[in-house]
Inverse folding.
């Protein structure tokens, strides 16, 4: 059972249309949802959301404008939206990164609060454009390290993160999937991928139904074909969304992407290992 597959409330568009970050009401709610409010935020279940500007930013505690932060682009699990980044980033790190959540490409409820990732050519192209716009918006508004952009996602969001990273391997410092399979199919830029040797982290719950010998073999074959540098981590249980997984995600980024960084978590902000749903 996926931890985020429980009933949750989501923020409605503000109607202000402002693209400026809101002031933080607390350290644990430091994200900001952006919406194109000049149009009604209303979608039918089978309609596509072509507005790629839906995103939510998470700023670190004691944000320092003179430091270039790694940027984590978060791909939510199916059935949720860009605000999921506000829930996961505090358990990854409160100080190390700027985070931005982007919205899935297809609404799955009548009021447009929940979204899935659609792996059609149109869905992939829309997601790729949303990632580009999120990076540009983050670079304009905050201090980020453009060589330290990491894609990360949960479930189908993890699969989409892997897919986008493989389409533009030179643009990203690494990609992380929590319980999402490698995308399969024709790889058009195989030589570019082999030269890049893109760092990947796969995090799997040992009892996840997708984590089986057949799927793991296929994923490993794909990674060997493109020459990526893959680290696979296995965790007990059927779900990857817990604080131990997110802590390891932070450690992997700091070790593989941001080595030598002067910004790191202090013991003051650490959380005890517990299932995410128990927090």
């Amino acid at each position: 059972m996926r931890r985020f597959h429980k009933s949750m409330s989501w923020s409605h568009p503000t109607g202000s249309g402002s693209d400026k970050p809101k002031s933080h009401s607390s350290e644990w709610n430091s994200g900001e949802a952006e919406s194109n409010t000049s149009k009604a935020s209303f979608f039918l279940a089978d309609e596509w959301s072509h507005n790629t500007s839906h995103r939510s930013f998470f700023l670190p505690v004691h944000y320092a404008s003179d430091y270039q932060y790694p940027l984590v682009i978060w791909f939510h699990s199916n059935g949720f939206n860009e605000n999921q980044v506000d829930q996961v980033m505090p358990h990854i790190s409160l100080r190390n990164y700027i985070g931005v959540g982007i919205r899935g490409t297809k609404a799955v409820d009548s009021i447009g609060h929940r979204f899935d990732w659609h792996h059609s050519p149109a869905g992939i192209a829309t997601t790729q454009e949303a990632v580009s716009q999120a990076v540009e918006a983050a670079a304009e508004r905050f201090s980020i390290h453009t060589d330290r952009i990491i894609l990360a996602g949960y479930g189908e969001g993890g699969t989409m993160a892997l897919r986008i990273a493989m389409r533009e391997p030179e643009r990203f410092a690494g990609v992380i999937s929590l319980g999402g399979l490698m995308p399969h199919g024709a790889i058009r830029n195989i030589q570019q991928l082999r030269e890049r040797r893109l760092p990947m982290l796969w995090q799997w719950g040992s009892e996840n139904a997708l984590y089986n010998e057949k799927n793991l073999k296929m994923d490993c074959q794909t990674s060997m074909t493109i020459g990526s540098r893959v680290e696979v981590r296995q965790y007990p249980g059927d779900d990857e969304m817990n604080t131990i997984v997110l802590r390891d995600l932070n450690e992997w980024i700091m070790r593989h992407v941001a080595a030598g960084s002067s910004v790191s978590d202090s013991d003051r902000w650490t959380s005890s290992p517990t299932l995410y749903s128990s927090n």
